[in-house]
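Hi W.,

Here's what went into the run:
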Amino acid sequence: MEPGESTKQARAAAQLRKGVLEYCVLALMRDRPRYGVELLHALEESGALATSQGTVYPLLSRLRRDDLVTTTWQESSSGPPRRYYALTDSGRAALEEFTRVWPGFRDAVDTFLTSPHLPGTPHHSPGDPA
Amino acid sequence: MEPGESTKQARAAAQLRKGVLEYCVLALMRDRPRYGVELLHALEESGALATSQGTVYPLLSRLRRDDLVTTTWQESSSGPPRRYYALTDSGRAALEEFTRVWPGFRDAVDTFLTSPHLPGTPHHSPGDPA
DNA sequence: ACCATGTACCTTGCATCGCATGGAACCAGG
DNA sequence: CCTGGTTCCATGCGATGCAAGGTACATGGT
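Here's what came out:
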């Protein structure tokens, strides 16, 4: 079903999300409580972290199991009630912990990816996609 | 070693490595063939990506199974022979693919971690009594 | 010769995670 | 009643990081 090339890109991106998704979801709740589909849409809009319900809901269950979030039901004017997820004290601490270690990690990967050898490499511009 | 806090930090960092380690190892082979312990030491020196043999060797087996690397044995003047891992054509392509998607991913995480609506956010120290 | 140490390679078993798939419940409009 | 949109959740599979354990080679001490 896959033409092949898109598989590789999807594969690389898929493996990347592991572990990071958890903290990005926590980061989304930092300002205010969010509900499942809202988180899903926010991740989708980011582009690189788009995922599915089958990923987000088990993740939210784990966060609740580990006491990183609490939930409250709230009625919706259009549709079934929504379960809003809010950060607990532990959740906020975990998020700050991640915020602390992330730059070092990011920098390490950047260091590995930048080769110190070929100054004239015909690299397409790092101007970046949207 | 840092006391106490390093546990949480290690936990967050451990989740982070998932999926990225594979491509960092490929990146290390970009310039010249490397052998297992050499890769292990390079990762350890990076700090954030330190891992163990139990992680690297199964990873290298997978890379070989997927034809991303080839290996050649080489004698060592001090110790057992070393198996050197070198990038194949597919391996180099996978590395470039990852190099393409990584900036977008990194940028997305950075965006989530920086709160977009509180310009005057008090960067209070951890343990704030709120 | 024997054994301890350092180097280097590899396997097994466990826990975790992303994700495709499928299903359930609620509301509005025809 | 029935179709469509929204929201929630669970199950099963494949892949991954990692601790623990095992094998083999070389050197030096006794």
